[in-house]
Amino acid sequence: MPQPPVQPTPRPETPAEAWQLLAEGNRRFVTSTSSHPNQDAFHRSRLASAQNPYAVIFGCSDSRLAAEIIFDVGLGDVFVVRTAGQVIDDAVLGSLEYSVSVLKTPLIVILGHDSCGAVTAAVEAFHSGQMPRGFVRDLVERITPSVIAARRQNVKDVNGTVTEHVKQTASRLADSSKIISDALDAGALAIAGVTYSLADGAVSLVSGLGSLTSEEQDSEHD
Predict the structure, then answer these.
(1) Which segments of the chain does DSSP mark as H helices, in order?
(2) Is 113 annotated as belonging to a binding site?
(3) 200 a known binding residue?
(4) Annotated binding residue at 62?
C-alpha cells in the first residue's frame, strides 16, 4: 500500500519562530539525528506551483557549507544565496530584497564559517600588501573593510575576522537596502549573523538585528 503523505512542517511567521526552527534543525544535524523534513514526493509536487520559504540564507559558497543539510530543512523551506566569502554585490542585494518583499521571508541568516578561503585571502593581502589576480581581487576588496574593522579591535586571526565579517555584512545589508531596513523597522524581519564550525557542524549566533526571541522567551529572562 502507498505510504500516506508526510505533513509539511508548518511555516513559521515570525523571525523568532524561523530562527528557532533553524536552530533546532542544526542541533539535529550536529547530533546525527537529522529528520530530512519536506523532501518526499508529495511535498515536491505540492511546491511545483509556488514557493513560500520562511528564511533566506546568505552564505559562503564553500562546498562544506550546504545550508539545507546543516539546518536539516527540505524543499521550499529556505531561499539560498551564496557567494565566496558571502560578499555583497547588486545581484545579492536584489535576491535578498526579492525574498523579503515578494516571498515575505521573516528571517535573513548571514552564514560564515571557520577557515574561510576568501577571508584568508583578504587577511593575507592586507598583511602582505599583495593583491591576488583576476576577479579574486574583487572578492578580497569587498572583504577588506571587515579585515580593517577586525584589526581595529586587535583581531588578526582568520576565524576572528570571519566573525567580524559576518557582523559587518549584516550591518551593511541594513544600511544598503531600504526594503530590508524598512522590514527590520516594522518588526517583520530579523537578521541573524552566524558562524559555522566545519569540524563539529554547529552554528553559533554572533550578531542579531531585529528580534530573534519570542515574547515568551523574553519574559522568562525578565
Answers:
(1) 15-30, 41-46, 67-70, 90-101, 117-128, 136-152, 158-176, 178-185, 215-220
(2) yes
(3) no
(4) yes
- Phi and psi, residue 25, nearest 5°: -65, -40
- Going by C-alpha positions, the residue among 77, 109, 107, 95 that lies closest to residue 184 is 107
77 is in an annotated binding site: no
- Adjacent-strand bridge partners of 55: 78
Return mean pLDDT, the chain.
89
pLDDT band at 220 (very low <50, low <70, confident <90, very high): very low
Smallest CA-to-CA distance from 38 within 27, 23, 61, 54 is with 54
* Whether residue 97 has pLDDT greater than 70: yes
- Crossing angle, helix 117-128 and helix 158-176, to 10 degrees? 100
- Domain ranges, ordered by start, for the chain: 15-213
Nearest residue to 144 via CA among 62, 134, 132, 192? 132
The model carries a pTM of: 0.88
Cell of 188: 517583520
- Residue 118 — very low, low, confident or very high, per pLDDT cuts 50/70/90? very high
pLDDT, residue 219, reads 42
Q: Among 196, 166, 170, which Cα is nearest to 184's? A: 170
Cell numbers linked to 157? 586571526
The dihedral over CA atoms of 214, 216, 221, 222, expressed in degrees to the nearest 10, equals 110
The grid coordinates listed for 115 are 577557515
- CATH architecture label of 15-213: 3-Layer(aba) Sandwich (3.40)
